[in-house]
Amino acid sequence: MTSIDPPNAAPKPAMPAEWRDFFALTKPRVMTLVIFTGLCGLLAAPERINAFLGFAAILCIAIGAGGAAALNQWWEADIDAGMKRTSKRPLPSGRMGRTQARDFGIMLSAASVGIMGLAIGWLAAAILAVSIVYYAVLYTIWLKPRTPQNIVIGGGAGAFPPMIGWVAATGEITAMPVLLFAIIFMWTPPHFWALALFKAGDYGRAGIPMMPNVAGEASTRRQIFAYSVVVAAVGVAPWVLGFSSAAYGASAAALGAGFVWYAWRVLNQADEDRVMKPAKALFAYSIVYLFGIFAAYLADAVVLRALVA
Questions:
Q1: How far apart are the C-alpha atoms of 164 and 40, rounded to whole Å?
Q2: Where among 150, 171, 192 does a domain terminate?
């Protein structure tokens, strides 16, 4: 019987996998951001949703993200084994077999889409399905090993949660959830390229064509700065377009200025041996930025809704 597993499969585990290994497959730290942005989209939407259904929607978003992450690790076990940052994950460390990870990922993905469709609506379920396929197939299998633009195009995979949350509450796609999608989409390249600058050796050993390994460090730093300027502009777009108040606009402008400042430090650190510190600082700030911009928008939407009510 022919296996559908990709080549260079990680060794089969000697002991059965524990629940902690299955939990680790879902990338819980990444899932925190997924849940938060999805919740912001759901709560900021102009229509309210029943609390139980809202919980179900966020749970489906989380489960779907976990399923996509498991499928990502199933496919990339050999790559993860060659990178220090990922070598202790369940598959490369031999604590779990690939078949277990694949089946777990498929089960979570199918369950999340099915429950979302039956409990919330099939438009939200369809977007959730697209997000899973986007990450597990388009990004993981096709883009990541083939092009340094993997993060640019693949950024859409992580940008869907606020849109799904919004559609779960309203049943429709409007301009604002598209803007929320755009914020994460444009944020992804400078966030991950900052990581790639101080993990270039890891990606090089694994054969992943990340931007610093293909275009060089100087080009990557220039592109990080250019994207950071765009991120700052997109971040204030909800205020410019009249979807939020001046209070949000000021918060977004301040957060965006911080992003550009950290990117400027990366751009102007010409010493390759010393560029790691600004890159690490930008990577850390980028996470703060995303949490901050979505928290600011959610707070603004809730306050404006209360004033109108």
A1: 10
A2: 171
Which domain covers residue 274, as residue numbers?
174-309
Cα angle: 294, vertex 297, 116; to 5 degrees? 65
Residue of 85, 106, 88, 134 lying closest to 283 (CA atoms): 85
CA distance 290 to 190: 12
In a domain, 7, yes or no: no
Find the helix or strand (DSSP H, E) in which 49 lies.
none
**Quick check: is 76 in a domain?**
yes
Task: Indicate the pLDDT class of residue 309, thresholds 50, 70 and 90.
Answer: low
Our count of domains for the chain comes to 2
The tens digit of pLDDT for each residue in 201-223 reads 888 888 899 999 999 999 999 99
pLDDT digits (tens, 9 = 90+) for 233-281: 999 999 999 999 999 999 999 999 999 999 999 999 766 556 678 999 9
Angle between helices 160-170 and 122-133 (to 10 degrees): 170
- Identify the weakest region by mean pLDDT among 73-87, 117-131, 266-280: 266-280
